[in-house]
Amino acid sequence: MHLIPKAPQKKEPNVFKKFTTPVTDDTLRHLAFDNSLQANIISIVSTGKIIMVNNAACKLLGYSKKALLTKKRPAIFDINESAFKKMLKQRTTDGHSIALVTVIKKSGKKIHCEITSSVFIGEHGIEKSITTIADMSQSILMQKKIDIKKEKIVANDIVLAQAKSDARLTENNEWIKQIAEASYDVMWDWDITTGQIYVGDSIEEVFGCKVENNTLSFTEFMLSVLPEEKSDVKKRLLKTIASGAKSWSDSYKLKRHDGSIASTISRASIVRSEKGKVIRLIGATKDVSMLQELEKKLKDQIALQKDQSEKFLLAAKISFDGIWDWNLLTNDFYLGEGFEELFGYAIKSTAGNVIDWSKHLHPDDRETVERGIQDAIASAASHWEHTYRFIKADGSIANVFGRASIIRDADGKACRMIGAIHDITKQKVLEEKLEQEIKLKGKQIAEATEEARETERSDIGKELHDNVNQLLGASRLYLSIAKQGGVNSEMYFTRSSQYTLTAIEEIRKLTKVLTTDVIANLGLSESIENIVRDTMEINPIKITCLMKSFTENSVNDKFKLNVFRIIQEQLNNILKHARAAKVTLSLLQNKESIILSISDNGVGFDTGKKHSGIGVDNIKSRAASYNGTADFVSQPGKGCTLTVAFPLTSLILSKD
Fold it and tell me: How far apart (Å, rounded) are the C-alpha atoms in residues 415 and 409?
C-alpha cells in the first residue's frame, strides 16, 4: 500500500477587493464560495444537475461557468466507477462521504481526484449536495516516481546481494530471516549448493506447516506439490535455471497440513556466480486461493446479473404490462417497451426519471399513489400494489393496477423497486357491465315473480267467480225452491247438496294448488302424480309420468317446490293454448344434473316470435334462480317440448 503525499501548498493570491460600500453576509458567502482555491460544485441530488460552481472548479475542469452549469453529474464524473458508486451509497447513508474517484475534464482527459461531498436541504425542501474536488494527479505522479526510484534501489540491492561472497552469506540469511518474519507471504531462500531451503515463520500461518529449524530440503518441498503437477513444476523450474534468467515465477497447487488444497503463486530472484552458475534462489510464495475464489464468485455474479438483465429486458419487450425499474440510490427510472404500446407515449430512451412516470398519474390519484410508495419504501414491506388512474397519450383515462417488489440491502434499506403496470380498463368496463346486467336480471326476475303472483291471484279470482260462485249460486237456487215445498222438494234438496259438495271439492283443489305444505308432506313425486290425476279427471287429456331415476331425498324442499311450480305453469299453458291430447312428463337425475322434460302433441308455436303472457318468462326465471336453463323446442302443428336442466349444486342438494 503506497501513501499518497499531500499536494504542495500554493501561495494564496489576494482575490478580495476592497469595497467602499457595506456588503451583506449573503454577498460575503458568495464571494467566499466563488474565490475559494478549492474546486466546489453544488448540484441537485435527485437529478445530478449542477446548479452552482466556483472559479476553481471551472479552471480544474476546463469549462466556462456558463457551460458547466448546463452539465449533470455524468459529464464530470465516471459514474460507473465502483469508487464513485460506493461514495454515493455512503453519502446517502451518512449524509457525507470522501472518496478517490476519476474526474473527466472538458477535453476528455481523466484525472484522479479526492472528493468530499455532503448533502443538505436547500430552498423548497430540495435535497442538494456540495462537492469539493482536489486534484491528486500530481501527487500520484510524484508517488509513482518515488516508487520507481525505490524499485531501482531494491533492484540494485538484489544485484549487490547476488555479488556478495560466501563470507557475507550468514549476514544475508539474517537479513532475509527478518523480512520473512514480517511478511504476510512465505519468504524462502533456497541454497542450491546444499539443497536446503530456509522458510519464514509465516509458513505455519499460511499453510499450517510447522518446519523444524525453518529448514527443509527441496525433496521435502516437492512432496507438498500435487502429484499431477509435480513433474511439470520441476521441469519449468529447471528450464528457467538453465536459461540464464535472473528471475523465476510459477503458479501451482500445494497440499496444506490439514489436507486441503491451496492455489499459490511463487516468484524468486536467481543468484548466479561470476560464471553464471545458479547458487541460490530468493523468493516468496503467496496463497491466492481466497483471491481466486472471490474472482470466481465475482464472475459468476456478473454472469448472473447479465443473465437476469437480459431476461428483464426480454420480459419488458414481450410483456403486455408496462414494466419499470427504479434505482432508488441514483433515482434512475427504466420503462419497458410495453409502456409505449399500452399508453401511446413515444419513448425516445427507456432510461429516465421517476417524474417522467408520475406526471401522467391522474391528478386525483397522484398524491395517494406517491404517498403509498414512499410509505412502502420507508417501512419494511417487500412489495407495493395499488389501483389507480393513468392518463394516456390521447388524453383518455386508463384504469390500471400497479404492483412492485422492493429490493433492500443488508441493512434493510430500500435500494431498488421493480414493478409492472397492468391496464385493467376493459376488465373494469366488463365488471361494471356485468353488475348492470345482474341488477337488470334481478329486476326482471322480481317483476316476473310479481307478475306471476298477480296472475295467480287473478286466476284464483276467476276460478272463484266463474266456477265456485256459479256452483254456490245454483245450490242456493235449488235450496230456495226446495224450501217452498212440493212434490219435487226432496230432489231439489239433493241437487243443492250436490252443487255444494262440488263447490267444496273445487275449493279443495284450488287450495291444493296454492299451498306449499303439500311438498313437505307428500313429496315432489306424489304431488306431481296428484296434479296429473286431478288434471286428467276434469280435462280430456292423457298424461304419462316417468320419474324412476329421481331421488326424492337428495334435494331440498325449496327446490322441489320450484320444480312443482314449473310443472303447474307448463300444464296450465298446455291446457289453455296447446289443445293437446297427450302429454309426457319425465323427471330424470344423474350424477351431474336433474332434467325435467314436458312434451305435448298440441298445436305448437313459433319460438322465434314474441308471445304475450309471462308463462315462458316465468319458467325461465324459475330455472335461472337455481343456475338452470329452460329451452322450448316447438313448431306450429308439431307440438312443444320443454327441457329444464339443473346442475347439482349446493343450492339444490339437501343438507341432511
Answer: 7
Q: How far apart are the first and last CA of the chain?
A: 86
Whole-number pLDDT of residue 220: 84
Task: Extract the C-alpha cell encoding 240.
Answer: 528457467
Select from 266, 209, 204 the least CA-distant residue to 233: 266
Residue 44 belongs to what H/E stretch? strand 39-44
**Mean pLDDT in residue range 39-48:** 91
Distances (CA, A) of 273 to 154, 227, 242, 345: 20, 33, 13, 80
Distances (CA, A) of 174 to 154, 169, 268, 435: 17, 9, 18, 96
Every domain of the chain with CATH number 3.30.450.20 lies at 25-142, 164-287, 319-423
Q: Name the class of domain 164-287.
A: alpha beta
Per residue in 603-655, pLDDT (tens digit) is: 998 888 776 555 788 888 889 989 999 999 999 999 999 999 999 998 999 87
Q: Which CATH architecture has domain 25-142?
A: 2-Layer Sandwich (3.30)
Handedness of CA 157, 161, 167, 168 (dihedral sign): positive
* Confidence band, pLDDT 50/70/90 cuts, at residue 464: low
Q: What's the chain's Rg over C-alpha atoms?
A: 51
How many angstroms from the chain centroid is the CA of residue 154? Answer: 60
The second-level CATH assignment, the architecture, of 319-423 is 2-Layer Sandwich (3.30)
The region that residue 140 occupies, defined by phi over 0 for left and psi between -120 and 50 for alpha, beta otherwise, is alpha
Q: How far apart are CA 1 and CA 652, in angstroms?
A: 85
For residue 623, give the C-alpha cell. Answer: 330455472
Helix then strand count (H, E) for the chain reads 21, 22
* CA-CA-CA-CA dihedral for 606, 612, 614, 617, to nearest 10: 40
CA distances (Å), 232 to each of 253, 280, 568, in order? 12, 21, 104
Q: Distance from CA of residue 441 to its chain's centroid?
A: 38
Predicted TM-score (pTM) of the model is 0.31
- The dihedrals phi and psi of 611, each to the nearest 5 degrees, come to -115, 150
DSSP 460-496: HHHHIIIIIHHHHHHHHHHHHHHHT-STTHHHHHHHH
Protein fold of 523-656: Heat Shock Protein 90 (3.30.565)
Q: Write out the residue limits of the CATH 3.30.565.10 domain(s) in the chain.
A: 523-656
- At 395, the amino acid letter reads G
Residue-wise DSSP of 287-330: E-HHHHHHHHHHHHHHHHHHHHHHHHHHHHHH-SSEEEEEETTT
Q: Report which secondary-structure segment, H or E, holds 156.
A: helix 137-163
